[in-house]
């Protein structure tokens, strides 16, 4: 008989990478993941959500030096300096350099 709809279009090549799978570009990864450098390979990592620490790229050029890239912030979020008021244990200097994903 017919195959169940769940098996529709299921070829190994069409399966998107899960978290931790190696990848070449973000389109190789499942939704909610991006392809980011991890040591000398690239793996699917989760796109950042609100409140998560993000990497602020001053210049696009020094991207290649990072051994551990982070994904960008998710939709409707922007990478901004953390105010630092929420956690008093975070010193002012540490809080100043910390960027987190915040609503636009």
From TrEMBL:
Specify one Pfam family: DIKK1-2-4_C-subdom2
Per the record, the GO terms for biological process are: negative regulation of canonical Wnt signaling pathway; Wnt signaling pathway
The signal peptide here is none
Coiled coil ranges = none
Recall the GO molecular function terms of this protein's record: co-receptor binding; receptor antagonist activity
Dickkopf-related protein 1/2/4 C-terminal subdomain domain residues: 19-48, 51-104
**What keyword terms does UniProt attach to this protein?**
Developmental protein, Disulfide bond, Secreted, Signal, Wnt signaling pathway
Q: What is this protein called?
A: Dickkopf 1a
């Amino acid at each position: 008989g017919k195959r169940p709809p769940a098996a529709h279009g299921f070829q190994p090549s069409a399966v998107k990478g899960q978290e931790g799978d190696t990848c070449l570009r973000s389109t190789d990864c499942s939704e909610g993941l991006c392809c980011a450098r991890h040591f000398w390979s690239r793996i699917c990592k989760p796109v950042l959500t609100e409140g998560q620490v993000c990497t602020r790229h001053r210049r696009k050029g020094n991207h290649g030096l990072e051994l551990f890239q982070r994904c960008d912030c998710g939709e409707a979020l922007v990478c901004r300096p953390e105010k630092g008021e929420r956690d008093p244990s975070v010193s002012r200097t540490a809080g100043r350099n910390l960027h987190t994903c915040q609503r636009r």
